[in-house]
């Protein structure tokens, strides 16, 4: 780059170079730092590294960063770990794992590590890499007093495999201690999100949160597949300024709900809940918030909105937990084989007709049941008609008749911002096909597009609809919580 008068880029003031580099991605900043010592000095200016997004671990079947990336991570954290203000840490997926939803090994999407000695060895390597890299990150931020946002996502099934967790027991204990140090040394933490980081958070972790951070904390997310409650009533009582909260549904007890309903607290605006059917055996729903608890909470937090993800949960459980006073805004029903009944959809459309904006109905099974059978009106059409604020509708794994899809598009029109229906889910009435001219798919696309006021097509790739549910929940609850 050349400037007027023959003055080169190296003559620019450091402040201007830093400003120019602020538009680069983290990866490009690191690459640019190898150009010369002047650029390196400017690129390692603290103002350029207030936010870090890291993806670590993995390495099995080529997924994620391998142990070869550890030195780069150590360099990055050594430079910036002590002053970074926002840190987002995600564990890269490990190939060959059982989905956390799947309690039946015979129906696994991937093979178990034990079935292949080489795969088992790669799993052990992936676990070792994960532990080393998490240790590196927490060792670097342990004394960071300026950390404001800490977001952690793991969902690492590698730690759940029998025997593997025991081999890393010493490192896991060290990681737990470092995490508690991070919480105790922080002085202005506002966002703490920890989702499925197995082996990290314990029921004692939150007690280490410093008093200054307990006063400044506005968002708390503690989600885990297996452990018991990660927050006690006394710890929640300290967090009097929470605006948003995410917990396992079973952990929202009547006592915790009563504390949230205290008029001495800041009103709660967002509540995200994970209801995992596979975990109900060791995390039962007894003692969870009652209808009266929800009414008391709404009286204090009038603007509260709730987001629920229900994984592999049958209709009897849903009917039990979906209380009338629960201000449900987003509902995601996801399963392999568990069937949602038409009666459940009827209840949802009647109880939450004034609040529901997002509805995802997903089922990963070769059988596509018809919820409208033996009914005068399709329950999905009724839901679209009654829920006047519905903006997002996603369907896969249930039969959606073409004429009902057209009705949904006309009922909600352009206010339905997202209408995602997999091509496999769409079916056509044979009686109507007889009277129809032209290609039925083309006619469906035309009619739905007219109803929505924009071009629409069914989703041809079901894998785009069936995203990994816990990862989807982690990311969506972030957007849900910051939308206050």
Largest sheet: 12 strands, parallel
Beta-strand residue percentage: 15-25%
Rg estimate, integer Å: 25 Å
Q: What is the number of helical segments per DSSP (H or I, 4+ residues)?
A: 18
Give the averaged pLDDT, no decimals: 83
Spatial order of the strands forming the largest sheet:
1-2-3-4-5-6-7-8-9-10-11-13
Kindly, what is the distance between the CA atoms of the first and last residues, rounded to a whole number of angstroms?
44 Å
The tally of beta strands, per DSSP, is 14
Unreliable stretches covering 5 or more consecutive residues: 1-6, 60-65, 96-114
Structural class: alpha/beta
Helix fraction? Answer: 25-40%
**Shape field:** globular
Question: In summary, what is this structure?
Answer:
It is built from 18 helices and 14 strands.
Task: Describe the protein.
This protein is of the alpha/beta class and 484 residues long. The protein contains 18 helices and 14 strands. The chain has helices at residues 14-21, 26-32, 37-43, 70-80, 117-141, 164-167, 169-185, 211-216, 233-238, 254-260, 291-300, 315-321, 342-351, 379-386, 402-412, 430-435, 440-452, 469-482; strands spanning 51-56, 86-91, 149-153, 191-195, 219-223, 244-248, 270-276, 305-311, 328-335, 358-363, 392-396, 400-401, 418-421, 426-427. The strands form two sheets. Strands 1-2-3-4-5-6-7-8-9-10-11-13 form a twelve-stranded parallel beta sheet, with helices on both faces. It has a two-stranded parallel ribbon with strand order 12-14. Helix 9 (233-238) links the parallel strand 5 and strand 6 (244-248). The longest helix is centred in the first third of the chain and has 25 residues, at 117-141. The chain is globular. The two termini are 44 Å apart.
